[in-house]
Amino acid sequence: MSVLFHQFTSPDTPFDLAEFLYIVRRLYIWPIDKYKRQMLKRVQNIYRYKYFVETGTHTGNTPRALRNDFEHIYTIELDEAWFLRSQSRLKRYSNITCLHGDSQQILRSVIPRIDLPAIFWLDAHYSGEGTALGAVKAPILQEIELIGSSDVREHIVIVDDVSDFSAAEGYPPLSSILGALEAINPKYKFYFDYDERIR
After folding, report:
1. Mean pLDDT in the chain?
2. Which of 126-130, 132-136, 159-163 has maximum average pLDDT?
3. Concatenated DSSP letters of 47-83
4. Distance CA 191, CA 197 (A)
5. Which of 4, 38, 98, 151 could disulfide-pair with 87, CB 3.0 to 4.6 Å?
6. Strand order in the sheet with 72-77
């Protein structure tokens, strides 16, 4: 904590209280990764869906944590190094399929395999150093459009880190994301939980 506080009080960086509190909340008060996985488990405990589809595997912690909650998990990673690490880590679980490539392309082959409602966890946006940057900073609209091509209209779509999306920084505006989801199913209802947008 002292290192973090020093970072925000150094002479080279003007102190930003809102940013400081945001980071403290995500790291110390409600550890973000643990909270998100608990949230996904809560959603699954309500709906008991068969499939989970993740874009943005990164370390593979999410599919590993959810391996006993779903009949089958598909996880997609653009960065080759992260893909190889997570694939090696997750290969022992027969119900997890690791896929390498751009989510905009890979979802085209995954969605036809989904014959029942699924939970989609969309986390393929660029998050800085250590994450992959594809053709666009956040392929969220393209991913939602592909989900809309499914014959199933009862999918749950959860958009990770939606509070970080800023049109000024090249991300799609929130209004476009909500409109794309409503185009799939006008009966969708929307909820915010931590930094996620849940339909």
Report:
1. 87
2. 159-163
3. H--SEEEEE--TTSHHHHHHTTT-SEEEEEESSHHHH
4. 6
5. 98
6. 96-100, 72-77, 51-55, 118-122, 156-159, 196-198, 191-193
- The domain ranges of the chain are 1-30, 31-198
**Residue 2 vs residue 90, higher pLDDT:** 90
Strands 72-77, 51-55: parallel, antiparallel or unpaired by DSSP? Answer: parallel
Could you tell me the pTM of the whole model? 0.84
Q: Is 111 helix (H, G, I), strand (E, B) or coil?
A: helix
Residue type, 121: W
At 83, which amino acid appears?
Answer: F
Q: In whole angstroms, what is the distance from residue 157 CA to residue 143 CA? A: 10
Mean pLDDT to the nearest integer, 125-131: 72
Tokens representing 120 are: 């989609």
| Residue in this structure with the two tokens 């874009």, named with its chain if needed | 55
Report, at the CATH architecture level, how domain 31-198 is classified: 3-Layer(aba) Sandwich (3.40)
pLDDT at 4: 46
Residues in the chain: 199
- Cα–Cα distance, 44 to 48 (Å, whole number): 5
Residue 31 CA, chain-centre distance (Å), reads: 16
